[in-house]
Amino acid sequence: MAEVATREFVPASQAAVQDTQLRQALRRAGSGFDGTRREAIAEVTPEVWEGWREQARRIKEHTIAHLDYYLAMLEKNVTAAGGRVHFAADAQQANAIVSEIARNAGVRTVTKSKSMVSEELGLNHVLEALGIDVFETDLGEYIIQLAEETPSHLVAPALHKTRGQVAQLFAEKLGVPYSDDIEEMARVARIVLRQKFLDADMGVSGANFLVAETGSLVIITNEGNGRLCTSAPRIHVGLAGMEKVIPSLQDLAVFLRLLPRSATGQRITSYMSMVTGPRRPGDEDGPEEFHLVIVDNGRSRLLQDPALRESLYCIRCGACLNVCPVYQRIGGHAYGWVYPGPIGSIVTPGLVGVAQAKDLPNASTLCGACRDACPVQINIPRMLLHLRHQQAESSDYNQRTASDTDALLARGFASVMSSPWLLKLGRAASRAMAGPLAKDGKIGQSRLPLLSRWTRARDLPIPPARTFRDVWRDELSRGRG
Amino acid sequence: MGIPSDDFLAMVRGALGREDAPPVEPYAPLLDDLAALESQAAAVRERIAGELPGLMTQVADTAALRGWNVARCAGVEDALDYVVSLAGRLGATSVARSEQEVFGAMPVDSALAGVGALCWPAVYEGAESRASVRRRLEECAMGITGADYAVAETGSVIVLPRRGLSRLVSVVPPVHVAVVRPQDIVGTLDDLFALRRLEFYRNGAEGGGDMGSYLNFITGPSRTADIEQTIVVGVHGPKEVHLVMLEQE
Amino acid sequence: MPERSCSANLAGRFAREIELTQPQPKRASLFVTCIIDQLYPEVGVSVVRTLRRCGVEVDFPASQSCCGQPLYNSGFTQEAKRLAMRTLDVFEDADYVVVPSGSCGAMLRVFYLDLFADNPDMLPKAESLSGRVYEFTEFLAEVVGVEEAGGEESGPAQTVAYHPSCHLLREMEVRDAPLRLLESAPRVELADLPDAEQCCGFGGTFAVKYPHISEEMLADKIESILASGADTVTACDMGCLMHIRGAVSRRNLPVAVKHVAQVLDGARDGESG
C-alpha cells in the first residue's frame, strides 16, 4: 500500500502554508476549476441541476445498499463477455493479482492511465520490483512519476507544480532543452509516450464506473491516453474500488452529465470509453485479455458504518477540494495519503485507520462548502462530526484518539456552563488572569501555551465588567419596546 | 492472491449487516424483456425522426462548441470535396479509414487517390501483421471513421468496433474526420443508452447480452490542462477533429 | 436536508397563520449565546433594542446557558447533550427562539436533531424547538416582516461589508435577510465584499488547533474586506467577528467590526448603544 504520512499533518501543513509557489498554484487551480464548474452549472436551471444530483444520489444509495448483488451481476457479465474478475481484500492481494497476470504473460512494459486506486495500492513500485517498466501516461501523472511524487489533487495530479518546475523536470529527466512553453512540454510528452503505448504489453486503467448489467468498465478522459492504454496493449487490467459499480447502462447518463461539470467545468470530456471484455473474434484492435480487479482495501469499514457509508458514493470529481478553504491553503500533499481534501478526510481515516489520521477530521471549519458542491450530495461535514465523535467517545479504544486533556476540558466546559455559580467563578478568575496580560483593554501576543495559539495573529478581548445577563437584569428587563 | 468471489461477496454482505443477497426491488423499473425494450427503442426512434432537422442543427452547434470543425454537407459529393480539400491542406499522402458502412456510399478511397493520397482500410490481411499496420497508422496524416451515433445533447460521436484496427484509427493520427449520417443522430444520452440496451439484449446469447468490446464517445479534440490549468489540444489523441455531416445520404 | 426544508416550510406556514389570525406583537425569547453574554454584552443590547423597535416583545430566560456547540463540534456528544437538554427545557414554551448567531442557531435548529436522533424521548422536543428557532435577521425579515430595521437617522454614514458566516448560510440557509435589512438601514451603504462566501477561518476550536491554517484564511478575509473599501465589516456571528476583529486590532486597521444588530441599531464600534 502507498506510504501513509497522515500523522505528519501538522508539520506538513505548516510547511505548505509557507510555500508561496504552492499557494500560487492552488489559487490558480481553485478559482479556475470552481469558476468553470459554476459556469457549467449556471448553464442549466437550478431545478435541472438539483434533479440530476438527486437522481445520482438515489442510484448510489440503491447500489451501495445492494452492493453484493450488483457485484455478483457485474462478475457474471464481465465473465460472459470473456473477461476475468478478481477480488482483492486488501492492497497486498490486489498487487499480487496484477503481478501474477503480468508474470504469466511475460509482460515487460506497462502503460497506465490515471487510477487513484493504483496510487492507493502503490502498484508502480510493486511492478517495478519485478523488473517491469511502468509508464504513467496521463500528463499530470507522468509529471509526478518523473518527479517521484504523489498526486496532490484527485483530478489534476500535478496541480502543485508550476510550469517552470515542470520544464526543469523535463530538462533533467528527459534530456530535452529547457522550455516552459506549455504546448511544447505537452508535445514532448506526446512523443516520449507514443512509443511506450505501442511497445506496452499491458495497459492498466482505473474505472470511473462499472456497469453491472453489461459488465462494462467506463473511463472518462480528455487526453486520449486512456483510449490508447485500453486499446493498444495485448492485456488490459482495470482497477476499481468496489463502490464503483452502477446497475444499468441507463444510469450512466446522469453521471456523464454530473462528473465532467463538477470536475473541470466541462460539459463533457473529450473521451468516454466503455470496455466490455477483451476484443471479440472479429476485432483486430483491443486486448486479448481483460482483467478487472475489484478492491476492498478498507472500503468495507466505511460500508459497515451507516454514518460513513455515503462516503462510498463519491465519484472523485474533486469539486470539494476546489471549494475547500483548507485544501486551498495547504494543498493535497499535507493530507498525507492518496485522497486529499474534504472527502479524503473521511475516506483516509476509513482506509488507513482512524488512529493513523486523527488530524484529518479536525482540520476543517465545517463551513459546508464541500457539501454544497458535491454532485451526489455527500454530507461531508456531518461525517467529519461523526469521526470526531468516534475520536472523543468511541468504545473502541483504537479509535478514541482525543487526548485526555481534551476530554477533561470538555467535561469542565460542560460543568461550568451547566452551573451559574461555576460560570461566575470562572468568569471572575479569567478577568483576574486577563488583567495583567491586557493592554489597552485587550490581550496582545502572549506566550502562554494555549493562549498563544490564538494571539499569534489575533488580539483577544478581555471579559467586560458586566455580562449580558447583568445588563438585562439591571436595565433591559424593565424596558418594554 | 485474491479471494474467491463468494468470500468477497459474503464480506460485503457482512458489512451491510445482512446474511444473504435479498431479491432486489429495482429503484426504477428497468426493462429487460425484448418486446418492451423494442417498443421503448421504437418510441425513441420515432421521436428522433420527428425532430430530425432540429436535432441535426443541435448536433452541429453543440459539436462546434466542443471543438469540432463542423461541415454540413448537402450530400456525398460535398462531403468528398471537403475531405479531399482537407487532405490537400494537410499534404496527406496516407489516410487510414475504418471499415464502416458509410464508405460504401461514399467512395473516399478513390476520391483521395485522385489527389495522390492513399486511403486504406485499417485491416491486416495476408502477410501484413498487426504491428506493421500500426506502424502505417502512426505515419498517416489523417484517420477517417463513420459514426454509429451522434448525440445532440453533448456533441459527441460514438464509434463501435469494426473489422480491423478500428479503435486506433480515430485516436492515433493527428487529425480525425468523422462522417455522420442523418440516421446516426440521437437526441440525448438517455436515447443512446436506451438504444444500446436493446442491442445488448438482442445480441446476447441465451440469457445474456453482448455490448461489443468497445464503445467510445469522442467529443472534440484530445486535450489536457495538467500544467497550470492551461488547455493544450492534441496531447495523446488528435489535435484537429472534423465532423462531416451528411444532410442526406 | 429534509429536516431543514421541512422546518423552513413549517415556519413559513406558521408565520403566515400567525400573521392572519394574531395582530398582537410577536413574543421572542432571546437565546443570547455565551460569547455575547460573556464578551460582547453590547451586541445583546443592540439586538434587544432593535427587536423592540420593530415591535417585538423580548424576553430573556435567565437560566439559559451554552447550546453545546463547541462540545458537539469537538465530538463530545455526551457533554453536548447535557447542555442541549437544558436548552430544550429552557425554551420549551417559547413562541419563537431568536438567536443572534448563525452557528448557535444551526446547533439549535439542525444539529439537535442529529444529537437526539436515537432518543425517542428527546427527539420530539428537539423537533419542536427546531421549528421555532430563528436567527435574528431571519426573524425580523421573515417572521415579523420588517422591511426597514434601521434606527436613528443621525450619525455618520457607513460603508458596510457583510460577511455571510458559514453556518448561517449553509446550515440555516439564511442568505438574503441580513442583506435586505442592511440595505434598508439609513446611512448604510453596502460594499461589495470579494469572495464573500469564503469561510473566515474561525471554525471554533479549529482556530486554536490549526492556527497556521486559520490565520491564512483570516488574512485573505481581511484582504477582501480592505479591497471592498468598507469602513465597517459586519456579520451575524460574534465568533467569526471576534476572530476578524482580533486581526483588525492587531494590525490597527481603520475598520469597525460590528454585529449586524449593532449596525441596525446605529451603535458605534464597541459601544453599548
Task: Kindly list the characteristics that best describe this protein.
heterotrimer, B: 249 residues, alpha/beta, Rossmann fold, 6-stranded parallel beta sheet, 4-stranded mixed beta sheet, 9 helices, 12 strands, C: 273 residues, 2 domains, 4-stranded parallel beta sheet, globular, disordered N terminus
Please tell me about this protein's structure.
The complex is a heterotrimer of chains A (481), B (249) and C (273). With 481 residues, chain A is of the alpha/beta class. Chain A has 2 domains: 6-299, Rossmann fold (3-Layer(aba) Sandwich); 420-477, no CATH class. Chain A is 52% helix and 11% strand. In chain A, the strands form 3 sheets. A 6-stranded parallel β-sheet of chain A has the order 1-10-7-4-2-3, with helices on both faces. Chain A has a 4-stranded mixed β-sheet with strand order 8-5-6-9, sandwiched between helices. In chain A, strands 11-12-13 form a 3-stranded antiparallel β-sheet. In chain A, a hairpin with a 4-residue loop joins strand 5 (209-211) and strand 6. Chain A starts with 8 loop residues before the first helix and ends in a 7-residue tail after the last helix. Chain B is 39% helix and 20% strand. Chain B has 9 helices and 12 strands. A 6-stranded parallel β-sheet of chain B has the order 1-12-7-4-2-3, with helices on both faces. In chain B, helix 2 (34-50) runs antiparallel to helix 9. The mean pLDDT of chain B is 91. In chain C, helix 8 packs across helix 10 (177-184). Helices cover 52% and strands 11% of the residues of chain C. Chain C has 2 domains: 27-144, Rossmann fold (3-Layer(aba) Sandwich); 158-271, Rossmann fold (3-Layer(aba) Sandwich). In chain C, helix 13 links the parallel strand 7 (232-235) and strand 8. Chain C has 273 residues and is α/β, with parallel strands linked by helices. The chains are: A alpha/beta (481), B alpha/beta (249), C alpha/beta (273). Strand 9 (271-275) of chain A pairs antiparallel with strand 9 (214-218) of chain B.
Average pLDDT taken over every residue of chain C: 90
**CATH classification class of the largest domain in chain A:** Alpha Beta
Largest interface: A-B, 101 and 81 residues
Q: What portion of residues of chain A is helical?
A: 40-55%
**Number of spatially distinct domains of chain C:** 2
Number of helices of chain C: 14
User: Residue ranges of chain A: pLDDT <50 for 5 or more in a row?
Assistant: none
The CATH superfamily of the largest domain in chain A turns out to be NagB/RpiA/CoA transferase-like
β-sheet strand percentage of chain C = 5-15%
- Provide the structure class of chain C: alpha/beta
